[in-house]
Specification:
48% helix, globular, 396 residues
């Protein structure tokens, strides 16, 4: 039996609600709030009931060739969902300053890559509406380049391998067209953003339709534009790593119709900290200082625990309809595992690199746990990076 496209959309809307900005007073620091008492339905408290893994992979292998790959997972609100009258892009200035000081060499974003989008389109009967929701149509670039998507992907890699030290406007326009045709629109937008406005013209494989699309992307209030592109430009990076995954949506498609109402009941259940979170919501908007503290809170253990207790953990604990809500949890875990694998792939050819992952805040705890199982990945503390550099030690 199949979930309807309406229910798939409901999952997306619920995700946006989970990512809502929650906060405290503008001048407050991220609080050390005690965990909710164990026993609350959905609490992320675990006990071993079966065999333990033969090897504990957490941490970094003691004997390692070279430095570990350092990964900072930054949970974020989906910024385009915030009210325009309360949030201005320049309110991200302090966050971007702190991240620039940390100087990531790879930035991974919550966007679906070209190969996965191609799969979602070719298997569209199994993924109704998913590609339309999460993928840009590469046609405006492919028509101009007279290539198919795999050819555009190879062309982009070839162009990057021969990239001049001082690329000209023509170089950037050509690479933007190739990236867009490859299904990597945010890397295309990054190249477009690094052009002077007078050079953002239809030429070198950029059609008028593609020019207009890239112009629109540079006005987006999405964090891929407001955070990732701005930071990548400041650091001189030439591409972004798209690491989202929606191939796991097949679990939703195959789920029984009972899943929808059960998940709605999970989301509507009361949590003892709901009032506290709701009261604090507006405190993290209105100034760069407030937004900086908001990011510190979104990435704190108390907030991460609250999210799990009100969503995935509660779903895992829900027995109704033969524990159908665990199918939703399975979808979330499969999606997260594939996203984390994409982060490992993005850094795989650069051992020892500093990697910034910008992802919806509900993914944060899961990403940290999954990435901590890799031989050579060292997690970086968000609080250490975002804290006031005058009163805190340098982050690793």
């Amino acid at each position: 039996m199949r979930l309807t496209v309406t229910l798939l959309a409901a999952f997306a809307l619920a995700g946006a609600a989970v990512y809502a900005y929650l906060g405290m007073n503008e001048n407050a620091a991220a609080p050390a709030v005690e965990h909710t008492a164990p026993g609350l339905p959905g609490s992320p408290d675990f006990t071993r009931t079966g065999a333990a893994p033969l090897i504990d992979f957490s941490g970094v292998q003691v004997q390692l060739g070279g430095e570990p790959t350092r990964v900072l997972v930054l949970g974020t609100a989906h910024l385009n969902a915030l009210p325009e009258d309360a949030f201005s892009p320049d309110h991200l200035d302090l966050v971007i300053d702190r991240l620039t000081d940390w100087a990531p060499q790879i930035i991974a974003i919550e966007a679906v890559d070209g190969r996965t989008c191609d799969t979602l389109r070719r298997y569209g009967n199994l993924y109704p509406g998913v590609a339309d929701s999460y993928c840009y149509d590469p046609a405006p670039a492919l028509d101009s380049l007279q290539m198919d998507q795999p050819a555009a992907a190879l062309a982009a890699l070839t162009t990057l391998s021969e990239w001049p030290e001082q690329p000209g406007a023509s170089d950037r326009r050509q690479l933007a067209a190739q990236f867009f045709g490859a299904g990597e629109p945010w890397s295309a937008a990054l190249q477009w953003s690094r052009l002077d406005s007078a050079d953002r013209i239809a030429a070198d494989g950029v059609s008028e339709a593609l020019r207009d699309q890239l112009d629109r992307m540079l006005t987006s209030r999405n964090e891929n534009n407001l955070l990732a592109l701005r930071l990548a430009g400041a650091l001189g990076l030439e591409r972004l790593a798209a690491m989202d995954d929606h191939s796991a949506d097949i679990i939703q498609v195959l789920a029984p119709p009972e899943l929808g109402p059960v998940i709605q009941s999970v989301w509507q259940a009361d949590h003892p900290r709901d009032a506290e979170m709701a009261e604090a919501r507006d405190g993290y908007m209105g100034s760069p200082e407030a937004v900086l503290d908001g990011y510190r809170f979104l990435n704190s253990a108390p907030y991460q625990r609250y999210v799990i207790e009100g969503d995935f953990g509660r779903a895992a604990a829900t027995p109704e309809s033969d524990a159908v809500a665990r199918q939703y949890v399975a979808w979330w875990q499969v999606r997260g595992l594939r996203m984390a694998a994409n982060v490992v792939e993005a850094s795989g050819n650069r051992p020892g690199a500093r990697v910034l992952v910008i992802v919806g805040a509900s993914h944060k705890a899961y990403f940290d746990a999954y990435l901590d199982q890799m031989h050579d990945i060292e997690l970086v503390d968000v609080e250490a990076v975002l804290a006031d550099p005058e009163i805190s030690a340098d982050a690793p």
